[in-house]
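seq:
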Amino acid sequence: MELLKRIEGPNDIKQFEGEQLLELADEIRMFLLNSVSKTGGHLASNLGCVELTMALHLVLDFPKDKIIFDVGHQSYTHKILTGRKDDFATLRQLDGMSGFPKRVESETDVFETGHSSTSISAAIGMTKANELQNKEGTVVAVIGDGSFTGGLAYEALNNLARLKKSCLIVLNDNEMSIDENVGGMSSYLTKIRVGQAYNDMKSGVEKGLMNIPGIGQGIAKAVKRGKDSLKGLLVPGMFFEDLGVTYIGPIDGHDLGQMIDTFDSAIRLNRPVVVHVKTKKGKGYRYAERYPKYFHGVSPFDLNTGKTLKKKTKMTNTDVFGRKLLALGETYPNLVAITAAMSSGTGLEKFANVYPKRFFDVGIAEQHAVTFAAGLASEGLIPVVAVYSSFLQRAYDQILHDVCLQNLHVIFAIDRSGLVGEDGATHQGIFDTAYLSQIPNMTVLAPKNRYELTKAMEFACEHNGPIAIKYSRGDAFYGLKDYQEPIEIGKSEVIYNGKDVAVIAVGNMVEVASMAYDILKAEGIHITLVNARFIKPLDEALLLDLAKEHNTIITLEEHVYQGGYGQAVSAFYMKNGCKDICVKNVAIEDHFVEHGSVSKLRERLGLDTSSVVSLVEECIQ
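struct:
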């Protein structure tokens, strides 16, 4: 790591040249492997763009120039080259370095990303701002081919040609998002990859014609005027240039020299340019090259074998969902499943294998996924949209306008609801209750354990209208197996009856509350424990009964307070004149939650068992 030691800040890479740069690339890869194998993180995507990032750092001048990494999980090499190598020991840990670009970490992290397809829009905005303020500098967006399945990228491309200043879009093409890419853009890029002969032929023809004495120049100009016809014959679409944006590529994303020359030439054109760079996801580590999906986001692992060090002992909520959906597929022939490029992450792979005609991967296009589901539901199918909580945010208007307004039977299976941990603020699923429960016709459930999750899915299939089931990341809760009251619309479940204090827990917080119950019981304190089950509609009858028998009601949820379950309960009691009841809401305050393990985040936020025990003890004193 001798060369890497000499990288202490932005632009330090420019002290190297020739063979040293190749050695530096090897050192960066080895450093990434050693570091991520200990901390976990996004590996395959970062191994694939080492040379690409180095080339950009060699042609750009920081902080005058700026790089925006779409999604952002491929920014590790950028962090290394801007002097943050020593921070990797704290990667994705509480109060440590983020796994995504973070403006507070470095002035070279110019735009925070975590969701896909945003970089081109941001780059256009930054470039236009430079133009209006007469500021020098080039803005570069690095966007993967997977992100080109998201609609926002096309909205941005539609406006890109309006810029009169250099703006470089680097299309990092590794033929993957997390799962394999789907759709027309993927097919189009495949055609471009095999159409390299066109670029070579075009260049050779133009040079040859220019050398013909007397008439060559005129013929060359005529051919140039007819280039669109030529492109149409040889490279179907030429999508980018048809939008008025210069396209270059594809070029080898692991050839430093070629990329340096290409990026430098593209910037000098002083106009918007798309450079298509072909990379290998997982480059340099055979296990990551062979299994890029597995090594997309990985927990600590053994470098020699590639196997994770974390032993899986239980089914996850995702596993429970996937297994139950497969069973329901046989019961309901009109049941279909939809994912936005996350079939493995949401547990749909088994359903997809057994019912391929009833499975739809729409790419990173959550808005389309929801309205597509609305169309399916309008014709009598039962679509299940399986999606992460933080990604469903992107389709709020479609949920409201296309599904709920028409009261269509669409099931939203919301994975990663609550704290997700190490991925940080962009991925925490702590806003779903707020953005779902305010919409008319929407029903929202939060099952307490793995058994109730399966029952909730059965209930959802028979429900008439939009319904959302939200469940947390990680191991499924196996406790409270004997408490399985039948699910009735809007009815909560009383697990234990006590006095003085009632704790109403939402979803995964039932596990926390049940552990608190056991501790308090050992102290001689008997509380009432309620599984909220339905976030919307509220069990108003039960809330009124609890107010008659208890002095204090505590609501417990892994969600922000604003728009959350606790706020709805407090508002209900106020509306109904229950002045003598004390309501305490345990929820997340009005701020974004950064990265860290879920257990440590719960401790800090007061959502852990000991915090609940302490609160109850205070209430009965």
